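We emphasize that the prediction below concerns an isolated chain of 313 residues; any contacts that depend on oligomerization or on bound cofactors are therefore not represented. The input was used exactly as deposited, without trimming of termini.
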Amino acid sequence: MPVKIPSTLPARATLENENIFVMGEERASHQDIRPLRVAILNLMPTKIATETQLLRLLSNSALQIEITLVHTATHDSKNTDAEHLLKHYVTFDAIRPEKFDGLIITGAPVEQMPFEEVDYWHELTRIMDWAETSAESTLYICWGAQAGLHHRYGIPKYDLPGKMFGVFEHRVLSRTESLLRGFDDVFYAPHSRHTEIRRADLEKVGDIQILAESNQAGIYIVASKDGRHIFVTGHSEYDPLTLKSEYDRDVSKGLPIHVPHNYYPNNDPAQSPQVRWRGHANLLFSNWLNYYVYQVTPFDPDEIPRGSIHSNF
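Result of the prediction step, given as a token string:
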């Protein structure tokens, strides 16, 4: 089934060229079902690339999804054309009276700053608080996951001695959790970050559970026990060439950066990268949409949130 997006969004042409099912607003309006409403708070500077990556994964579902793109009002994006934001994005004030089945909060390149020094931190915390009563389930990605864990549970982040950069092996810790349904015991996911959260801090919080981690990259997926908050510290949504673009960018700027781990054959940047994470990225997003959003959200949006989610169907 398709993801419903405006015909003018740049991601539409990209997805159609990849043979991904997208639906125009006119056709969607004639289908006698209620689409899932998912808001994406896009904090990444490369907004068009990020929205395309997320829409690609959200479209791989047997559900019709209506997307609302949100940007912060307290931060001016320097890397995205103002016309694109004006045409396709709204601010929090515009959606505050509304209800959403799901909310996605992306990462952001601010992880080495204290949370409270990020210029849109106050606005972000207002959005996270609003989601408690206005979204059935929230998926937090990379820095968004660190921010959510810090705001909700007081979990700190720690600087790493070097950037966690590449594609890392992970293991499933909760075989019965619906979010991981269909996952292999060992799977791969990309990471690109300078900070981490630690197991010892998470284990002090009774409301959360660690679902997947890596010997090298550390904690990967954490969830609240009611299923309404999913924290993913990596970037499963990344395209095949996203890590390459980040590596080439840092090399061209003369920044200290190592070759992405387990990404190029023979660790050789002259070769084409190998994609090892695509299947599990699709599983992660489709499982979240199905078990943590669709299966539990009420038909009447005014009833969102419906209450505690028991995710082990």
